[in-house]
Amino acid sequence: MKKFVFLIIYSILTSFGATASDTWVVNSDGDTIWYKFNEEEKTARVTFKGEYDGQYEDAYSNTINIPEKIEYKGAKYRVTEIGWAAFAGSVNLKCVNVPKSVTSIVNLAFYGCTNLKSINVANGNSCYCSENGVLFDISKKTLMQYPAGIPGGYTIPNSVTKIEEEAFAGCVHLTSVTIPSSVTIIRRNAFELCSGLVNVTIPNGVTEIERCAFHLCYRLTDITIPSSVTSIGESAFSGCKGLTRLTIPNSVVTIGSKAFYECEGLTDVNIPNGVTSIEERAFYGCKGLTNVNIPNGVTSIGERAFYGCKGLTNVFIPNSVNMIGNEAFECCEKLKSINVERGTMNYSSENGVLFDTSKRRLIKYPEGLEGEYVIPKSVTQIEDCAFSGCKGLSGVTIPNSVISIGANAFSACSSLTNVTIPNSVTKIGRRAFLFCQGLSNITIPNGVTTIQSETFFGCSGLSSITLPNSVTSIGIMVFFGCKKLCSVTVANTTPPNVNHSFVEVNENITIYVPAESVEKYKAAEGWSEFKNIKAIPAK
């Protein structure tokens, strides 16, 4: 864990590496500290050592006494600043004593100091003070830094109106926190990686929970968001896998992207009426979610908003919605229906299947449906991922109206055994039939010129395929892992270009080509590897 924490900081800060004036100096107490010196102003900053030598994480241990003044090259320098990530990753550091000369302590100064139990500020400091080892501004209105090594719960003093960014970040021993009603904003990353945090009391008065405020608080089980909150920021509760209960008040109008990303324990969410947008990945990976209420007033559902919500069974789209992002309901394996309210501007539904208003674009077939499906004759385009993950789909009838099949359109349809691609189709997207293990034979229609990369990747049951004379190019890994493939019929007299298209395909399979082109194929790059190239049998 300690290396992980440090490397995060190091990756951020390498661009701020050491200069000629950065060096280790031993103070009068015997502590060796890394400083950056301002020779003009005769000031010094305790700073991050900008070169990782594999030992920096243990550079500071036990108690560090920062002096008011330090001697360097025969001159006295006043220590005025503790810089960005100055002590970051010092897992053996337990106490830091800050002199009255310090006027600036930058965010992340103590990040990853998991055993730090006290930050003590000397009397007479004009900018900072401390109480029980906790760092505040001089007015005690801003909580600057809570030492990560203090165990148990903490009640924030009533004087505090602001919790600074990263104030509790990485406090793995913190189990509960009570926030006073004087606080109005919970700043970004304030409680990030508080992996032991179980209970948080957010008072009525907080209006905004900023991005990543409770990111990766794994053990947080329930939280009540007060009615004063209007905005839940990006990734505010992302990775809170233990969160099972969540109340979002009607005051909330904004739910940021990834706000509840991978909150696996959530089972039920009521989105308040004031919300107009569900941002991208807002509920991504909430696999325990079985019910979600999308209120009338929501105008957009972002890309992958409910991706991986494996327990979700039904979705109702109100007529206020005019935009649904790509893969909004992808990998929802129990989803039986997506029903769209009448009068919706850009969308419609039929038998639980999502279309555009004109029913020309088939957008999403619910992954929980089983059996065969006949696509309506109005459809001209099967969208990207339209049937992706439909493991119970056994057969599909594509009408002659369809001209394009999108990327990943039927990927992972493992039970699909029967599909006829009509002659109207001119484009088949990449990975269109990826891992369709039940497919045994496919005929590509005349009009398709390119078989795009990985189209039949992992189709382990595929035994034969017929390619028309229109095909001039076969992309990379198209037939990767098609181990049962025994024959490929190619109608083009000119060998199509291939690019590692038949990786892990038996070289002894039979390639049928026009009689007059047998020798061409035997000499062509990519085709010459096959031992059995024969003329297409006469009918």
Explain this structure.
The protein has 539 residues and is mostly beta strands. Among the domains are: 1-150, Leucine-rich repeat, LRR (right-handed beta-alpha superhelix); 370-539, Alpha-Beta Horseshoe (Leucine-rich repeat, LRR (right-handed beta-alpha superhelix)), CATH 3.80.10.10. Helices cover 3% and strands 30% of the residues. The protein is built from two helices and 46 strands. The chain has an eight-stranded mixed β-sheet, with no helix packed on it. Strands 1, 2, 3, 5, 6 and 8 form a six-stranded mixed β-sheet that branches. Strand 5 and strand 6 form a beta hairpin. The longest helix has 12 residues, at 2-13. It is elongated and about 100 Å long. It starts with a helix and ends with a strand. Residues 1-20 and 51-56 have low confidence and may be disordered.
> What percentage of amino acids are in beta strands?
25-35%
Name the shape in a single word.
elongated
Largest sheet: 8 strands, mixed
Total strand segments: 46
- For the biggest β-sheet, the strand order reads 10-11-12-14-16-18-20-22
- Helical content class: under 10%
Low-confidence stretches: 1-20, 51-56
Write a compact overview of the structure shown.
The chain has 539 residues and is mainly β. It is built from two helices and 46 strands.
Question: In terms of topology, how is this protein built?
Answer:
Elements: H1 2-13, E1 22-26, E2 32-38, E3 43-46, E4 61-65, E5 69-72, E6 75-82, E7 92-98, E8 104-105, E9 118-121, E10 128-131, E11 134-137, E12 142-145, E13 152-155, E14 162-163, E15 174-178, E16 185-186, E17 199-201, E18 208-209, E19 222-224, E20 231-232, E21 245-247, E22 254-255, E23 268-270, E24 277-278, E25 291-293, E26 300-301, E27 314-317, E28 323-324, E29 337-340, E30 347-350, E31 353-356, E32 361-364, E33 371-374, E34 381-382, E35 393-397, E36 404-405, E37 418-420, E38 427-428, E39 441-443, E40 450-451, E41 464-467, E42 473-474, E43 487-490, E44 497-498, E45 510-513, H2 518-523, E46 532-535
Parallel strand pairs: 3-6, 4-7, 6-8, 7-9, 12-14, 13-15, 14-16, 15-17, 16-18, 18-20, 19-21, 20-22, 23-25, 24-26, 26-28, 27-29, 32-34, 33-35, 34-36, 35-37, 36-38, 39-41, 40-42, 41-43, 42-44, 43-45, 45-46
Antiparallel strand pairs: 1-2, 2-3, 5-6, 10-11, 11-12, 30-31, 31-32
